[in-house]
Structure formats: structure tokens, C-alpha cells
Give the backbone structure.
Amino acid sequence: MKAAIIGYGKMGHEIEKILLQRGHTVALIIDQNNTDDLCADKLAGVDVAIEFTMPQTAYDNIRTCIEAGVAIASGTTGWTERLPELQALCREKGGAMIYSSNYSLGVNIAFRINRRLAELMNGCDNYDVRIEEIHHTQKKDAPSGTAITLADEAIARLDRKSAWNCIEPQKGETPQHKADSIEITSLREGMVPGTHTVTYESEDDVLELKHTLKSRRALATGAVIAAEFVCGKSGVFTMDDLLHV
Ligand SMILES: NC(=O)c1ccc[n+]([C@@H]2O[C@H](COP(=O)([O-])OP(=O)(O)OC[C@H]3O[C@@H](n4cnc5c(N)ncnc54)[C@H](O)[C@@H]3O)[C@@H](O)[C@H]2O)c1
């Protein structure tokens, strides 16, 4: 597989290592100092692009790849209100794309458990639910895309919840405990790669679904596996397609 890496930051570097370990070629690397190189000419012959940049740049980067006929796996978080536009464009052009707010295979299994847990908890009104996410201090968006996915997918299955709200204690924000909202607490600490906990609590007990990432390697490996999955295909995919769940 001939791959392009778009965004040569922490994830881009890790992805490069995994691509090479798995026998792929890195044909093009784009970062903010050579953004003009992300064009149809330079993308010619590239099978798949892996995009991990910034919320402000993801949309244009992905659009360029779709228009150039290059399959794309993107993991940039904090911009996904425009994702449906690109998914529609991808279908229209017969391209291939996969997007996930978290490429860890373990997190994607946790997403599935979270959905089932919410279905089971829908009948148990005596439990309230909250989410906590902890990431390294350089993370730019809050709450994490993963926490938003966990919250949205629980809200879709819990009649008593209709929204989520985020509090950032480091900014002096304090819990709000709105009955119809899932509160997401976003914490930023040291070098933490990513920890997510969904907690259901009644007066008498606590049930927790927790995923702790030990390193970025799990994310980079999942992103490369996702790129391998979309390479040569046509369509819009999620990690559920890859995991057959
Ligand atoms: N989906 C996942 O599994 C997952 C995992 C980790 C991080 N992320 C997300 O991926 C993104 C990147 O994370 P990171 O930790 O590598 O961040 P980072 O800040 O280390 O790297 C981002 C890189 O993008 C570059 N960049 C900025 N604008 C660009 C442009 N127009 N074209 C190309 N490159 C550009 C920056 O120079 C930087 O090198 C963030 O949104 C983060 O939240 C997602």
C-alpha cells in the first residue's frame, strides 16, 4: 500500500512507524509547512491517505483527497459537524473513507458495550450516568471526540437524557448535574494518552465502563488497519464495519 500521511505531529510520526513495520510505503508526508503539496499531482499513485491534523484543517484535507480519488482514513477530532458533507461527497464520487474519533480497537469494543449498557439502563431510572475523559495537556479540543461518541450513543438509547454538557475543572468550571443531560468532565493531565470512564451510579451501587490507553501505538495501529481496510474499496465506513459488530 502506498500511503500519504497528512499531519506529521505526534500521531503522524507514530503512524509512519506502523506503516513501515507493516510493509507499506510512505509516498508523501504533508505538514503545515508544505500544505501546497496536498494536490492531485502529488497524490497520483497514492492508494490511501491517513489524516491526523487539526479541527480547522481536516475538512479541506479530506475533501482534496476525495476529489483526487484517494481513499482516506481520518482521525482528526473537533470538526465533525461537517463530516456528513464529506461522506456525501465521497459517495457521489465513488471514493472510500473511514472516520473514527478513536482508532483503538479496545475503545471501539467499548463503544459497542456502551450502546448495550445504555439500552439495559434505559429501564433503570434510579441510575444517573456521567462520563469522565482524561488526556495530555496538549490536547486542543474538549470534550474528546471519544467522549462525545460515548455520550451521543448513550443519549440515543436513554429516554431520560437528551443532551450532554461538558465541564473543564481546570478552567474553574463546576459540576452542573442537569437531570436530562450527561455531564462530561474533561481533565487535562501530564502525558495521559487517553482514559474514558462511563459511570452509572444509583444510591446503592456504581457500575463503570473504563478504557485506559497505555500508548498512542494502539491508535496509530488501528488507523493503519483502517487505512488497509478502505484501500481499494468504495464507500463510507466506520470502525463497526471493520470490526463486524
Ligand atoms: N481518532 C483517533 O484515534 C485520534 C488519536 C489521537 C489523536 N487524534 C486527533 O488527531 C489530531 C492530531 O493529533 P496529534 O496528537 O497528532 O496532534 P499534533 O498537534 O501532534 O499534530 C498535528 C499536526 O498537524 C499539522 N498540521 C496543521 N495544519 C495542517 C495542514 N493544513 N496540513 C497538514 N498538516 C497540518 C501540525 O503542524 C501538526 O504537526 C487531533 O485532532 C487529535 O485530537 C485522534
Q: What stands out?
A: The pocket of nicotinamide-adenine-dinucleotide is lined by residues 6-12, 30-32, 35, 52-54, 57, 61, 75-78, 100-103, 219 (CB under 6 Å).
